[in-house]
Amino acid sequence: MxxxxxxxxxxxxxxxxxxxxxxxxxxxxxxxxVFNDIKQELVDKGLEAYKAEGINARGYVCDxxxxxxxxxxxAQIEKEVGVIDILxxxxxxxxxIPMTEMSAAEFRQVIDVDLNAPFIVSxxxxxxxxxxxxxxIINICSMMSELGRETVSAYAAAKGGLKMLTRNICSExxxxxxxxxxxxxxxxxTPQTAPLREPQADGSKHPFDSFICAKTPAGRxxxxxxxxxxxxxxxSDASNAVNGHILYVDGGILAYIGKQPx
Length: 262
Ligand code: NAP
Ligand code: GCO
Hints:
Helices cover 40% and strands 14% of the residues. It has 262 residues and is of the alpha/beta class. The protein has a 7-stranded parallel β-sheet with strand order 3-2-1-4-5-6-7, sandwiched between helices. The radius of gyration is 18 Å and the shape is globular. NADP nicotinamide-adenine-dinucleotide phosphate is lined by residues 12-13, 15-19, 36-39, 42, 63-65, 90-93, 113, 140, 142, 185, 187-188, 190-193.
């Protein structure tokens, strides 16, 4: 029941990072992988990376915030590959700016990619899932779906909204055998968090690096590959009775007050 053979999975923003790791895991479980990224050179880089893993993925250039482009991409995928069985809304950005210094345009840009786009892409794939009689949607949420912190107001608002969008898709389309769940990763070592891990000029650890290690029971950053098991579970028949759930893959951050400083 954990296999994905015969299933077509679209993972957005999956040339690298968490999306790439999830796509690799789903491919190893038997899924056919299609992905998109915003630039041709990124799609080409992603195709090379998938090929190096022995995965015959298909890549499409598409800005997930552009509804017409998303609808055209989904139609092209359905024509060239087949109906999408599994959607992972992974593409996302973050802007770390103190709220009072953030422009409304910057706030809107984060909301557009991290919340509006999952709405747009989900809306594009649901009708064919209904016709097919099943579907799986996995929204990549965040610790910021539950917690705030300085400088990430737009991102937290988007990821909190994505949690509720997840629950609403569950509520509205569960009767059509569509399960919509979220994965809430903890702190993962990817390009998105690289600025938070850069060593200081004197070679010491970035303060945020030390902070996150103290807030994670295992005392370390997590790896993108540690999300693949939960993602395959939520994409498979093993989770057909799981709906509207946010599965936090955070190493226990949300359960932990934090390690006492020595
Ligand atoms: P990442 O390394 O920045 O990768 C994000 C991917 O999304 C990139 O390929 C990016 O392409 C693509 N993308 C951005 N805007 C797009 C758009 N408008 N249309 C299409 N593709 C777009 O991020 P990540 O760390 O892998 O994170 C992936 C997801 O996990 C995000 O939703 C993030 O919020 C979430 N997340 C990350 C962490 C973490 O600790 N890393 C934890 C929790 C949740 P470009 O390179 O062209 O921008
Ligand atoms: C930040 C980080 C986090 C992670 C992730 C945690 O600046 O706090 O980027 O937001 O990306 O969302 O779950």
